User: Fold this.
Amino acid sequence: MAVVACSSQEGEHALMDILNGHEDVEMAVPDTWMRSFGDFAQGHPKSSHCVAHSSCKAIGLAGDCCPTADGVRLACCDQSTSKPNEGEDDKLEAWEHGLSTVVFHSFHGHYVRAHPNGRVALQSNESIPHEDTQFFVVPNQDGTVSLKTRHGTYLVAMHSGSVATWHRGHSMADDWEKFHFVYHQDGRVSLRSHATDMYITAEHPEIGNPPGAVLGNKETADDWEKFTVKVHHGQDSKIPNDANFSKLWGMDHFGGRDIDAVEAWKTFTGDSSKGIVVAVIDTGIDYTHPDLKDRMWVNPNEIPNNGIDDDNNGIVDDVYGADFANSDGDPMDDQMHGTHCSGTIAGSGNNGLGVAGVTWQGVRLMALKFLTASGGGRTSDAIKALNYAVAMGARLTSNSWGGGGSSSAMRVAIERADRAGMLFVAAAGNEASNNDDVGSYPANYPSSSIISVASTTLAGKLSSFSNYGETMVDVAAPGSDIFSSVPHGKYASLSGTSMACPHVSGLAALVWLYRPRLSAHQVKEIILQSAVRQHALKGTSATDGIINARRALALASAYEAPVPPLHGPRKLAFQDVDPKVGRIGGTLTITAANNEIDVDYYSVHFLSTAGVLMHSIARVNATGAKEMTVELNRSLVIPLYVKGFAVVAGNASAEADIASAATVDIEDYGEPDCGPRNISWGGDADGRVGFVAGALRVQRADNERSISHYNIYWQKGSKRGALIGKVPGIGFMRPTCQGDCELLNISNSGGIYEVHRGAYGNNEDARISLSGPALVTITSFLTEKSYDTLEIGSRSFSGTTLRVPLTVRLPAGPATIQWSSDRSETEGGWTFQVRQLGDEAELELPSLRPPSWGVEAVAAYHSHEGHGGVAVKISDFDSATMPPSAAFAPRAVRFEDTDVAHHRVAGTVEILPSHRAELKDVVTSYHLVLEDASGNQAGHETWSVAAPANSSATIHVPIESIELPAKAVRLVVRAQSAVGESATSTSTEINDIVRCAPLSANFSGDVEPSEGIILGNLTIQPASDPADIAAYAIYFANDTQKVQLLGRIAAPLGNEAVVFHVHAYYQPGHRLLVVSVYRDGSEMEEGAYADVKDWISAASQERRLNRVQREDKNQPFEPWLRHPRQPAWNEIQTLWTAHPTVRHAGALPLLKAGRVRSASDNLKLLGTITIPGLLSSLAPVADSEDEQVYMPVVAEERIQLRNGLAEALPGVRSQQVKLTHGQALKGDAATAGAVTATGAGRKLSSSIQKAFQQNVASLVVDFEVVPPTVGDIAGQQSFLDRVEAHLILLSQGGAATARLDAILTKRLQRAGTAFPKGGLRSLVSEPRLVAPRRQGVGIPASAMTTGRYLAEDRLELVPEAITDEDEETQEESRASLAAAAAAALGAVGAAGCIVAAALRKHGRWQQESSRGETVALEGVRVSDQ
Assistant:
């Protein structure tokens, strides 16, 4: 998969058509934005008792134990830990409630004590709690809890109000001994009886009635009904000494709302394991944090901070991971989100600092940054991060981000990671919506490797912000008020499904460390099967529960481990025969294992540069043949990070790992597509006759994609002689344009490209691709702010306040310059120059006697050369008889005119001499002259200067003011010697710098009554000599000193005055200054001044202060928890529904595809189109509260809408589009919904904004697109992938949307539709793929059977304690405590193209395609050798 950045709203269709037509590209997909939300032992050794093994004993296993098949962990053979049968009168075993106890400390300072005789009262001795004060918390099936004493009795509350303990005479708890925990905001807890609905109260030990009594007779909870709960951990738990561990309620909490981490840690904390790599794809990680620095993954093949890509994976110094947002190897967190998630996964435990992660030890955190400091990021960068994680050996990824629509490119990347054995843990989303109805991605992709995670609160409820879904959400985890690490060694509490996701990631790592041979799907199954079902979470996920680490390890110990083959293939051979660079074809030859008794098949994988097995590409059955061959009878694109092939043996249980694989490196056989453009001789620097020394200069090919280096040969006649040397390729690519290139004026002078666009039009889009390093200098710039942008590399420019000249340095590697306009609102434009560095390569020829006088350069790719080359004749220099050769010409000449008068120049010439050491023995002086375009001397002025003794010294030649000859265009410098003047020169252009200020500037007067704000028009009379003036810059000035740039306005073509609209904050004493800005980027310091007087009305100051306070108000903490504005009941009018659908009461998600839940689980795409003003209103009904009622769109108009959508989508017929629901949104609801659909990654275009402003109501239509009924699932998915790509394109509001508007306008005209003022404008949401979630594979039936007792025996805990109002207040209060930065979840607009360079299905051997399905192919030849 390749990624091409094309961040533009306009013209994407043209680029997509180009990419889709490329032979290496299967599908082009527009980019979108996302946010932040052991040794194998055969046989079984002799069994022994569980009590003899701490691992078994800690989790309550009894009887005889035997090792699991992997020989790492122990399982109980006799299953004696299963739950007692119903009807048995046995008391609950300790494993049901653990060995930890709680004590209740009353408001009066005394503990609640249960005496052996059944009496319950406050303990008289308040300092040391008696063991009778300790209670076991026993969860019940209905969500209540029972409190069991150390005497085996249970606390009961009678209707009389008395409280006592009794011995249970039955197996199940009755209502008398059931209680609800009620959590208060001050941290205290109350007990409410399930039978009486009364609160337990502790009477005062001296003045109570009776003193010190514990009663159950209070209807409300006051201080006497509130207790401080203290936990006494038993021997079945392990408590770390981290300073803030008590704040980690998700790890340990007495009420059963935690994940039972401390009980799991008694069994295992990750120690004594081989380790596991967890990739955190997020905002990066502060890898210097005290709680994380020892848990960081370190790239073993990268030398830190040496500026070299040591492991050849394309990223320099990727020591702890990589930063794909900024394209470098430093993933330092510049936000806080990723560091916070990382602390929950694997914060160092028991180190006395901060926090402890779910997995203390064994985890190595790989930091993969794709979200910027703002919390947003591109889907394409997320794909790069995921591919990197697979290639570098991560077993699972933690993904606390998402939002927006679906993308087939992201889905394919997840499926490939799945085929590489990776688990993908994803946050469900923070929109408080149903993911079954409204998909949230990536959590909603159908891959079986995804675990989608919802968030819970301390009270055990679903967090108010959390998404949910019985089908598309898997499980819940603590996510509200989660304390963890943040950058700079600090800690903070944050809330979100982003915080729930790392709990599951940490648990997955813990299970995998505990049982390393389990597959990814088994680990997922264990996590879901061991979840604790809770009544309050019913219907929120597939499990209705919260993860539980203790139960997960217990279930993992019962799983039968996969048993991969012990015997592996002996050899793998491959030779590429495809001549295309970057693609391979040929025959893979597999030498079978010596013994195939445990081998069913051989699986061929790509092998990464880090030595990791990537996704499989072929599978061959083991038949007993000594050799098998796999024909790659088509061009196979070599994925990023791949260095070779690996083949491993597999059977019905599992595949072997890399340790037993046979591997072969890929040597890409390729022939260059093009060759060097020229080779030149830099002149002989050896003054001896018959000897030469100097530089051979090779002009690189226009595109070095297929060139690794250039070979330089001596040329003997028509044949090549000996090799002189090699010049490496650098991936050079000359600037090439795509899109609206005919609108640009592009010129090339001396290797410097100048690109100019004057007064531009609507919906322009042009993209220039080139290679860096390069310098891009903007010399003029005037565009409409925010909507018309020039993007140079990673920087974006718009508006009228850009100070030019401004130079942007593009780093080495591929780069893009993108221009896009929305709607022309200015007479501006821009100009920039591009100077590529390294377009010419040098090979230094040492002093020698040449075997011939001809030299040839030819392009090569590794050991294969191109067919054509370029040649040059070298010349011999005799210093005794010849003037200086070209080798002694100056390296550079610089001159800048300082005389601003017309036709006069003055200044200082700077000459950089040749760096040749022989300079002092050859060159005596330099001669300077002016020349015309033909190379003839212009004028009579000449200058001479002596050569320096040091060749590194710069020579300065002053030039007094002279009249510039009429035809002079350049200043030429030539070296001189005693023999004469060199024929080779070095020159610089002469630019006659003329400066002329505008004649005058006049301000119309302030019409804004507010103090400190001015509003009015500034009229500018152009300069008397407007030559080369590009614009006029307007400043606030203090006296003559520029203070603040207000903007720029393009210079007129003639002498007409121009008007600049001024609206700005004003400081007393300032005045307006207008200066000329020239096309070379220079700007005058002096100009025309206009005085300003601030008009102030009497009531303005208070209004101004209020406005400024609103503008300066800080954004709320944790912005990813902010929900979009929902429409009020009277802002919505349903117009039609295509089929009966259950519409949920309450808030409706706006402009998000899929609001109407599909009645089918078949593949389809959901979308929404919004059209402002396309509604006719009726007169209000008498006595109606509605101001207006809108006419439903008639059937003919709906047909034309459907047909128009079908016409705008590739290969879609009208019958495949269904308009499922239509409604009118009134007032601000439509605009708010539009912002929600567009997201924070892209602003609404000015045209659609105006359409919303000009119309009272908008038509909002939900639609779905289904694939053709013929064909297989793979074909249907491919069809929807292409439609999805075009819907993403339409959602960007560019030229594609303009074409859709034209189609809809034409079609609706046929139906007689009345169009709104300004014409039809539409807004399309990002699409959402609906596909059934695939089930995990490869879970042995034995494991499912063995672990079923845990799967069926899920405990239920109901958090009924806190009222809804209390819980929301508590949650939001905590959420507002932490300072969080940008959003981690939510939908945003699209900004690029992802090219899935997937492999075409032409072969016939069995292979997995890029889309995840397996296709049957027939080209496997088996030979007996």
